[in-house]
Structure formats: structure tokens, C-alpha cells
Design brief:
Strand order of the largest sheet of chain B: 2-1-3-4-5
CATH class of the largest domain in chain A: Alpha Beta
CATH topology of chain B: Rossmann fold
Order of helices and strands of chain A: HHHEHEHHHEHEHEHEHEHEHHHEEHH
Helix content of chain B: 40-55%
Strand content of chain B: 15-25%
Distance between the termini of chain B: 17 Å
Number of helices of chain A: 17
Helix content of chain A: 40-55%
CATH class of chain B: Alpha Beta
Catalytic activity (chain B): (2S,3S)-3-methyl-L-aspartate = L-glutamate
CATH architecture of chain B: 3-Layer(aba) Sandwich
Radius of gyration of chain B: 14 Å
Pathway (chain B): Amino-acid degradation; L-glutamate degradation via mesaconate pathway; acetate and pyruvate from L-glutamate: step 1/4
Strand order of the largest sheet of chain A: 1-8-7-6-5-4-3-2
InterPro entries (chain B): Acid_CoA_mut_C, Cobalamin-bd, Cobalamin-bd_sf, GlmS, Met_Synthase/Corrinoid
Distance between the termini of chain A: 57 Å
Order of helices and strands of chain B: EHEHEHHEHEH
Number of strands of chain B: 5
Strand content of chain A: 5-15%
Number of domains of chain A: 2
CATH superfamily of the largest domain in chain A: Methylmalonyl-CoA mutase
Largest interface: A-B, 38 and 25 residues
CATH architecture of the largest domain in chain A: Alpha-Beta Barrel
CATH topology of the largest domain in chain A: TIM Barrel
Number of domains of chain B: 1
Radius of gyration of chain A: 21 Å
Number of helices of chain B: 6
Structural class of chain A: alpha/beta
Shape of chain A: globular
Family (chain B): Belongs to the methylaspartate mutase GlmS subunit family.
Number of strands of chain A: 10
Function (chain B): Catalyzes the carbon skeleton rearrangement of L-glutamate to L-threo-3-methylaspartate ((2S,3S)-3-methylaspartate).
Largest sheet of chain B: 5 strands, parallel
Oligomer: heterodimer
Chain lengths: ~475, ~140
């Protein structure tokens, strides 16, 4: 089947499904009729999609951690701790990295060695290996909606198993779970594999079961200009909507300049809704997720709490529907459950203090929204043109030609010619546009913003600025200026 | 850039796709005169070894950022020996275990696996490069 931007027929879907469920022995546990029944009987307070709509209507921001360990009992203990001691509103199951590469034999080894060592040697929850039965133990032992969060280019079987088990939200997408997470997997393949996942969600939706999907916003989490990440979110939103997904949460990773962060979230929601309307997806409900700072963190825990609080403020003031929470252990790796709970508590405190407040309109905010939308439109138009109106084909060609280009990505299918850096107020701008199809007006705007910083710092615009910016937050500042500036 | 005549294989081991640090390590080591053979992210042990054998490298620096370092690094020294890389300088660094653990224990665990130097989270690559010059006798 060639890649096309169109809804899969039920026949196409069911044919591929047979093959997918044979990929690992736990796939055989799935019984469609029984899964539909199970999901229908899941109480509303465990349904992710419904909880998000409720939050959107009430105008509040929900807090969600990342978390996952190798063994079922320890995983349940961890999640209940984050709910009861941390005050999480939504729960995750972060999937380990072997599963993400479809290395299920290695997961088995990780599970065995974790049992032997008495501590988790895997960096997440191997839900596919635990199967529907194991995953349902988790669903039944917690009191909040659950989402699987991962970074899996081919998540077809993982999604089948965990959705059937009662996980009512799934993060990822054909672009956002490829370019930042893989080295040599083609975009044609990941977009098709995620069309399958979206079709699966659409199929459940047709059976009367409301499920949430969430494209991964931050991408490489490293100085991604908002217009670039917003384009990816909008494309994945449209790809999901085409397959029948109705409840979509678009993501954004904090850049660090408050005005730019608020502008990016607003521009993303507004433009996504416009494109959905244009393409006739009138039943799609869009919410937003704000990821607290995804780059390097300070090792000092008090400083890390500062970064976390700052992210919580930006999420609240941007009006995001939920915020993904970092922890004071971020600089050294995977947090203990106590550190994870502290991150949530810090975040919730800030969210409570800012409840009902939004950043007021200003000339600077409106100008930033307009700038992001202008850049997004320029990129979207080119993707559509390259695909002759087909956005899936256009996306593949756009990456081939560097028209879409994610900074610092591992994928060989990403051009890597675009380079970002902060301007003098910390907003992320395009330092090198590479092959991006920007107008002279857009190029000049970005260049002028960076020139202002270069003048202030008394140095030339260059790659050293990007490198300095990457390490700046870890060292205690937003902008990576030369010493003494 | 003046070359110092030493070859280093770098890469991110296992199912780990953290690319940013890898690109920066590449950039800094080259700036400091090393010839860098970068096998990139998502690299199995065999790729490190093959790259070192093919290029007759002086050292291997293994990065791991995602917590599976302990599982991924088991047996690397033995496989290097089998491949004829006798006593090759072997470093590891990053966030190499799951969670915050007592550093001395972690360091000991990896030294027992045969690593010559083991680096804490957040160690600047310039420090590692300094050690590399010492250990390779060009400091």
C-alpha cells in the first residue's frame, strides 16, 4: 500500500491487524469484542479524553508526570504514590527504550534482571511484554486516567495491547516519534504505522469509545523554533483526524521566553482549529499540552525547582489544558518516586496560584503570535505543494528536501541544515534557515533579531551561540552569553 | 585544526537516541585535535568494536543517557579483547544507571566491567578530553 493522506478502509485495517497481533505472543490475548466491552465499562474518571474536555471547559490546567518501571507491582506503587502524595491529575506509563525499538527479547531480560536485582534496570514500563492482562492490573489498581508515553516509531502492537487494556490516551505520531527517536527508519514507514494507530483509535471511536491522541510536541527538545514544532503538530493533528480520531491534544515544549511560549500555544491551537475546519474535520476537539523545559537541567535541586515553577507559570498563563512535569532529578536521569512527586507538588502549587489568570494581550504578544502563524503558513503551503495536495506525501518530500528540518535530530532522514539560537530576549529564532522555504521578510526578521543579540554580546552570529544556548539553562541562565555579558 | 594523531570512536550505546550531546562531543573533540569516528545514536556494542578495529582507534568513548547503560555495557570489554582490541582505552559517561544512586557504587560497578574511566552526569567533554590526552600519552 502506497502512502496516501486518506482514511484506511476497514478491510485494509483489519487485514494489517491480523499481522500486527502476531508480532509477539501477548498480541494473541486481544479479543476485540471483549476489549470494546471492557473500555465501555471503564468509569468516566478513568477516561483521559473526558477528563481533558472537562478541564478545557473549566479553563484549568492539569498536571501529569512521566513515570514507569519494569515490574507491575512496583509500577502500580509508583503511580499511586504520584497520585496520592504528588497530587497528579493524570497518570502516565512511560514505556522503556527496548520496547520503543521493538526489542521484546531484551525487555524479557530486563524484567528478569530487575527481579533479580530488586530494582528496575529498565527505564520504563514494558507494557507490551506484560500484555493485556498485566496492563489491566495497572488500570484497575489506579484511580486516574492512564496514558502510554513512549517514543516508538512502530507502536502498532504496543498501542493495540495497551488500548485494549484500558489506557485511554496514546502519545506519538508519524513524524514526532520518528525524527527525534530513530536513526534509520523511513518517514513513509512511520507515517503509515501511525496511520494504523490513529485508525485503531478511530475504530474504537466508531464503537462509541472516546480515546485521546497526543502528537509529541517538543521533538528534540533542543531549541526547536515554535513555528517548526507547530507545523509538525498541525500535520499530525490532520493525519489523526483523517483516520477518525476525535480528541487530540497538541503539544509544545517550553522555549523559555514567556511571551513566545504563550504565543506559541495560542497560535498552535488557533491554527490547528482553522486547518481542521478547512478540511472538514468538524467533530475534532483540540486541547493543548505544555511540556516544562525539555533541555538540560541544573543539577542543584533548588535551581531545578525554579525551572519547574517557571514552566508551570508559562503553562498556566498560556492556558494549556495540561502540563507535563519535570523533576528535581532531571539532570541525573530517572527520578525516584519522591522526587517525581515533589515536581508535581511544585507545579500544582503554581497552577493553583495562577488559576483563572491569563497573560493579557499586548503588542509584543500579538506580534509574536502573528510571526509564528506567518512562518507556519509558509511551511504548510510548501508541504501541500510538494505533495500535490497530499499532506502525507508532502511531509515525506518536505523532510527529503529540508523544507521541514528539526534541529539536533538523530534521524538520517532529517536534513539537519537549519540551526536555531536565542535572540536578545531569549526567544528562539532561525539562525540558519537551511532549505526552509521562508520569504525574504521572514528571513530578515529572524536575522535582525539575532543581530541585536550579536551586537549586544560583541560577537558574530554563529553556531557557537546555539552551543552556548544548549548548556545555558543547566548553568543557570536562559541565554548562553559569553562570560561577563 | 591541528591534529594530535589520536583516533577516538564515539557513540551512544543500545536503544538510546539522545543525539544532542553526541553531536557536541564530536564537535569539541575535533576542535581539540582528535580524529573522531562517530557511530551515532542507537549503536550496539558490535558497532563500537567494528569501528575501532577498522580504524585502528586508540580509544572508545561510550555515551548512555537513558538509564539502560548497565545492561548495554555488560561484556563490552571482553568482546573488545576477543576482537583483538587489547587494552584499548575505554570510557563511559552520561546518565548511565536508572535513578539517583551512590556515585562511588556506580563507578565501581562500571570499572569492574572494564571501563578505565567512568563519568558522572553533567561532566563537560573538555574534562574527558583532558584525561584522554593523559591516558594516551600526549598531554
Amino acid at each position: 500500500m502506497n502512502l496516501k493522506f486518506r482514511k484506511w478502509t476497514e478491510e485494509e485495517f483489519l487485514r494489517e491487524r491480523e499481522e500486527v497481533l502476531r508480532q509477539w505472543h501477548t498480541g494473541k490475548e486481544i479479543n476485540f469484542e471483549e476489549s470494546i466491552e471492557y473500555l465501555k465499562n471503564l468509569p468516566d474518571h478513568k477516561n483521559f479524553a473526558k477528563k481533558l474536555i472537562d478541564a478545557k471547559e473549566r479553563g484549568i490546567t492539569l498536571a501529569q508526570p512521566r513515570a514507569g518501571v519494569a515490574l507491575i507491582d512496583e509500577h502500580i506503587e509508583l503511580l499511586n504514590f504520584l497520585d496520592q502524595k504528588g497530587g497528579a491529575d493524570l497518570l502516565p506509563s512511560t514505556i522503556d527504550s527496548y520496547t520503543r525499538q521493538n526489542k521484546y527479547e531484551e525487555c524479557e531480560r530486563g524484567i528478569k534482571e530487575s527481579k533479580k536485582a530488586g530494582r528496575s534496570l529498565l527505564n520504563g514500563f514494558p507494557g507490551l511484554n506484560h500484555g493485556v492482562k498485566g496492563c489491566r492490573e495497572v488500570v484497575e489498581a489506579v484511580n486516574l486516567p492512564l496514558q502510554l508515553r513512549h517514543g516508538t516509531p512502530d507502536a502498532r502492537l504496543l498501542s493495540e495491547i495497551m488500548t485494549a487494556a484500558g489506557f485511554t490516551s496514546n502519545e506519538g505520531g508519524g513524524i514526532s516519534y520518528n525524527i527525534p527517536y530513530a536513526k534509520s527508519v523511513s518517514l513513509e514507514k512511520t507515517i503509515k504505522d501511525w496511520q494504523y494507530v490513529d485508525r485503531l483509535v478511530g475504530w474504537y471511536e466508531e464503537q462509541g469509545i472516546s480515546l485521546n491522541r497526543e502528537p509529541f510536541g517538543p521533538l528534540t527538545g533542543t531549541l526547536v523554533p515554535p513555528s517548526m514544532s507547530n507545523v509538525v503538530q498541525i500535520l499530525e493533528c490532520l493525519m489523526a483526524a483523517e483516520q477518525g480520531v476525535r480528541n487530540i491534544t497538541l503539544g509544545y515544549g517550553q522555549c523559555g521566553n514567556l511571551i513566545q511560549d504563550v504565543a506559541a500555544v495560542r497560535a498552535m491551537q488557533e491554527q490547528a482549529e482553522e486547518y481542521c475546519a478547512q478540511m472538514g474535520y468538524d467533530k475534532v476537539e483540540i486541547t493543548t499540552v505544555f511540556h516544562q523545559w525539555m533541555g538540560g537541567f541544573p543539577e542543584d535541586e533548588a535551581k531545578a525547582f525554579g525551572v519547574i515553577s517557571n514552566g508551570a507559570s508559562a503553562a498556566a498563563l498560556a492556558g494549556a489544558t495540561k502540563v507535563i512535569v519535570k523533576t528535581p532529578h532531571e539532570a541525573i536521569g530517572i527520578p525516584t518516586k519522591e522526587a517525581n512527586a515533589e515536581g508535581i507538588k511544585t507545579t500544582k502549587m503554581v497552577l493553583n496560584l495562577l488559576e483563572g489568570q491569563k497573560l493579557a494581550d499586548s503588542d509584543e504578544l500579538n506580534a509574536e503570535i502573528a510571526q509564528i502563524k506567518l512562518e507556519v503558513k509558509c511551511l504548510m503551503d510548501k508541504v501541500a505543494e510538494l505533495g500535490d495536495g497530499d499532506l502525507a506525501v508532502g511531509t515525506v518530500k518536505a523532510f527529503e528536501q529540508g523544507v521541514l528540518d528539526i534541529p539536533f535530530a538523530p534521524s538520517m532522514f532529517n536534513a539537519g541544515k537549519m540551526l536555531p539560537a536565542r535572540d536578545n530576549t531569549g526567544k528562539i529564532r532561525y539562525l540558519e534557515v537551511g532549505n526552509l522555504p521562508f520569504s525574504d521578510e521572514i528571513k530578515e526578521f529572524n536575522r535582525a533579531a539575532l543581530q541585536e543579540r550579536a551586537d549586544f554580546e560583541g560577537r558574530e552570529i554563529g553556531f557557537q551561540m546555539s552551543v552556548d544556548d544548549i548548556f545555558a539553562v543547566g548553568k543557570g541562565k536562559l541565554i548562553g552569553r559569553p562570560e561577563g555579558k | 585544526m591541528e591534529k594530535n594523531g589520536k583516533k577516538v570512536v564515539i557513540g551512544v550505546i543500545g536503544s538510546d537516541c539522545h543525539a544532542v550531546g553526541n553531536k557536541i562531543i564530536n564537535h569539541v573533540l575535533e576542535t581539540m585535535g582528535f580524529e573522531v569516528i562517530n557511530i551515532g545514536v542507537l549503536s550496539p556494542q558490535e558497532d563500537f568494536i567494528n569501528a575501532a578495529v577498522e580504524t585502528n582507534a586508540d580509544a572508545i568513548i561510550v555515551s548512555s543517557l537513558y538509564g539502560h547503560g548497565e545492561l548495554d555495557c555488560q561484556g563490552l570489554r571482553e568482546k573488545c579483547e576477543e576482537a583483538g582490541l587489547k587494552d584499548i582505552t575505554l570510557y563511559v559517561g552520561g546518565n548511565i544507571v536508572v535513578g539517583k544512586q551512590i556515585w562511588e557504587d556506580v563507578e565501581k560497578r562500571f570499572k569492574n566491567m572494564g571501563f578505565d574511566r567512568v563519568y558522572k552526569p553533567g561532566t563537560p567533554i573538555e574534562i574527558t578530553a583532558g584525561h584522554l590526552k593523559e591516558d594516551l600519552g600526549i598531554a
